[in-house]
Amino acid sequence: MRKISILSLHLGYGGIERAIVSLANSLCSKYEIEIAVVYKLYDKSSFEIDNRVKVKYLNGNLKPNRDSLVKAINNKKINLIIKEAFYSFNCIYKRRKSIINYIKTTDSDVIISTRDIFNYWLSDYGRENVLKIGWEHNHHHGNDKYATNIINSAKGLDYFVLVSNDLEKYYSKKLAKFKCKCKYIPNTIDKIPLKTASLKEKNFVSVGRLSKEKGFLDLLKIYKVLVKKYPDWKLNIIGDGRERGNLEKFIKKNNLENSVILHGFQDREFIDNIFNKSAIYLMTSYTESFGIVLIEAMSHGLPCIAFDSAEGACEIINSGENGYLIKNRSFDAMILKIEDLIKNENERKRISKYARKSIQKYTSDNVNKMWIKLIEKGE
Question: Phi, psi (5° rounding) for residue 30?
């Protein structure tokens, strides 16, 4: 049985980490799978891992200390700054040393890198007979500096997997003169639930990391307008992150405490339950590389509305058929479209039907075949 290693920075909450676990779970029936992890953020993975998958933590309980360092700097505590800076340097040093050592010594036949820095190390230190695959989850968003770094990191790899057709076309042109071949393989949905939302309950839902690029503050501003006309409609936000404090301030300032629920990080069962009790999924991300949460929402039959600034949403949503894309981040246009769906249950059901049908290509079975074809045949 061939062995595959997947390099992971951590196994906490995050889209990349979820994709890693999903891939490991889908491949472990055919291959020996090992996830090599730099940082152990929690006692166990944030996502359920098949017991056939081996998880190897490379640095014990080592955890990065970015927040502690920033706090020390903000408080201008010199001794604490020195202490935290030294710890941070140690983390970076051990990250590099542990991954390079793993790449050099593992008996794996295939190594999959999930970060640009890992790409460099895999290219430089991976054995000649190892199949070297990079896996890029982020969109360059027109940032030439970011894209150039990604291109440079992938030059020495055998294959570079992109999660969208748009990214595959872009990087194929950029890497054409190098040995690295680009392949489009989308992220996958683990399962399509049998039970779907009734679309009758007056709930909006949105899921994601509470960071600025996800646009949750914009979502609250839009909801603030809607709730005045439709006070029975509640907004559920699932996720956590650095923006939570700002969101809580906005909610309190605008007296939305009884209408908006910040659920924090939650497990799959909890999210599925909220999906089934909702009628509309809202995405206000500024950028989105793939948009796995859209597929998950669609699997529950939820009509999805997103700004077209989220590139991943454009990959998934065919506006007017299986969801809606709003141009130019227009709050007014999004509010009008949400109102259309609030008023028209039949339209919600029509979109729901096509949404469920359109996500079949993202099932674990279909995506798994694409990975196996790449690993076995390089196609």
Answer: -110, -30
C-alpha to C-alpha distance for 33 and 128, rounded to whole angstroms? 20
Chain centroid to Cα 71, Å, comes to 27
Does pLDDT of 289 surpass 80? no
- Which residues share a beta bridge with 206? 237
> Which structure tokens are listed for 35?
């996830």
Give me the half-sphere count of Cα atoms (radius 13 Å) on the Cβ side of residue 353.
5
Structure tokens at 78: 């010199």
Q: Model confidence over 156-193: pLDDT tens digits? A: 999 999 998 889 999 999 999 999 999 999 998 878 88
* Contact between residue 301 and residue 199 where contact means Cβ atoms under 8 Å apart: yes
Distances (CA, A) of 15 to 10, 282, 303: 12, 18, 21
The CA distance from 145 to 326, in Å, is 28
What are 91-124's pLDDT values in tens digits? 999 999 999 999 999 999 999 999 999 999 999 9
Half-sphere exposure of 207 (CA within 13 A, CB side): 26
Residues 374, 159: contact at Cβ < 8 Å? yes
Least confident piece of the model among 74-78, 166-170, 199-203, 273-277: 74-78
pLDDT at 379 over 70: no
User: In terms of pTM, does the model score above 0.70?
Assistant: yes
φ, ψ for residue 264, nearest 5 deg = 70, -170
Q: How far apart are CA 377 and CA 379, in angstroms?
A: 5
Sign, CA torsion 266/23/167/280: negative
Residue 235: both structure tokens together: 């907004």
Is 142 in contact with 110 (CB distance < 8 Å)? Answer: no
Q: How far is CA 235 from CA 203, 206, 254, 349, in A?
A: 6, 8, 14, 20
Whole-number pLDDT of residue 374: 96
> Rounded to whole angstroms, how far apart are CA atoms 309 and 328?
7
For the chain, the residue count is: 379
